[in-house]
Amino acid sequence: MSIHINDQGILEIPDEYDDTLGTFLFLEIGYDPYKCLVALFHVAQIVQRRSTRQAVGGDSVSVEVTPEIAAMQDHFAPSRSKNIPFEDFKAAVEELWVVIYRANSEDRPSRVFRPDLSPAQGDLVLWEQTFKQRHPYRGQIEGIPAHGPD
Question: Which parts of the chain fold into alpha helices (H)?
Answer without folding.
Answer: 19-23, 33-47, 86-103, 119-131
